[in-house]
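Following up on my earlier thread - several people asked me to post the actual chain instead of describing it. Fair enough. Here it is, all 490 residues.
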Amino acid sequence: MAKSVILKSSFIKIFIGLFLAVLFYAINPLNVSELANKTLFVAILMISWWVSEALPMPVVGLVPLILFPLLKIMSIDKAAYSYASPIIFLFLGGFMLGLAIEKWNLHRRIALSIVKLTGTSGNRIIIGFILATGLLSMWLSNTATTIMMLPIALSIIHVMKKNYSGNGNLDNFSLVLMLVIAFASNMGGIATIVGTPPNISYVGHIYTQYHHQIDFIDWMMVCTPLSIALMITLYWILAKWLYPNHIKSSSETKAIINQQYKDLGKFSNAEKRVLIVFIFTSTLWITRGVINKLNPFFQLDDTMIALISTIALFAIPAGMKTTENQSGSENLLIWEDSKKMAWGILLLFGGGIALGKGLEEAQLVQLLGNWLASYQIKGFMMILIITTISIFISELTSNVAQVIIFAPVVSSLASAMDINPLMLGVPMTMAASCASMLPMGTPPNAIVFSSGYIKLRQMVYAGFILNVVSIILISLFCWFLIPLFMDYKL
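Reply from S.P.:
Thanks for posting it. Predicted structure:
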């Protein structure tokens, strides 16, 4: 019965999206050309299906491959090119590196090591989880990071409850620990290009529209300090201001963390080798500009580096002894591991790039940008407005779909205002990953909300304050740092 209700609901959403697209095409309220009107039909259909989740988002990403050639908007060859963009392969490489880190439990060792170092008082545990979660989320998906950190946090809460002496506020500690796992996953992800899907999506848009690839290190120079500032603010707002816990250090909590770390055993050969590949890849991403300047023989880009690390992971032996579960000849990654990769995200990005290309060729994005520019809001105030709109819209919609939809709009707006498009696009992208008010804002929010330690009003209250602070910090950091580190001629 429940299955039939879900199927019926899905069919209704598909029909509503189709109806809205046809209605808009028939009325043509913007009075645009036939080509632009057909492109808008496809855009409205995709956006409505993305927002309503009528179909899986990667499936909706395939729509341009059918409708663009069918409606003579773009040839299938041209549409298909978007699905083989270099940015798609950059994300593929980042995914594979994350898979290897997870497969050999390196992520868990990193997390527990940080928590061990920070100490076991209530606030120190919270600091440890913020650091561990934020650091991991720079390289792994925020969803995977949250899923990995949650059971560790729950076991610590369980031990503290069992040994609770009445000193301090255990409810506040549990609440804050759950919230910081989700929010630090989101905030840590903005620090690197591969940290979260919206970043990749926006970098892909810049490459497609301007034929320029944002340097990995340049992104980090702007976004890593911002990420750190957001996580420091996260600690002070939640642990020191809104929900202080006053819980002192506990030998029992220290014991369980030490035991979990001890259970991991010594660094395995596989962990060491994955760590070496990780450090090698990160170093190349950070220093490739210097390498390219000093080296006359070849030129590296971020996609090539990501694929080098991917091939290395499949080529390097794990160095593990044969057990019941693992073959001694197994490499760090085998093709079976790729089943765990979110392949659908690549289709989603490809569909977003194709849609953006279609909107650009139909000159719809330029029209919207010119219209917004006509209000003559300039400088810092425009960045503040874009960031505010982006962060609150992302509470209700997928942040990936949001960036796919809005990236061409803000680029066109920047062009109409004659400013660097990154001045509006980067804050829009950062804000899309910082939704903190609602469980549906990001997958990490939903995961920690399901723990039962968070009431909706608590998440809304804390999230609203964090949203306001995030808007201010994102706008300020982008206003001052983008001209220093991303002053490209696009």
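Residues 395 and 441 are 4 Å apart (CA to CA). That should answer part of your original question.
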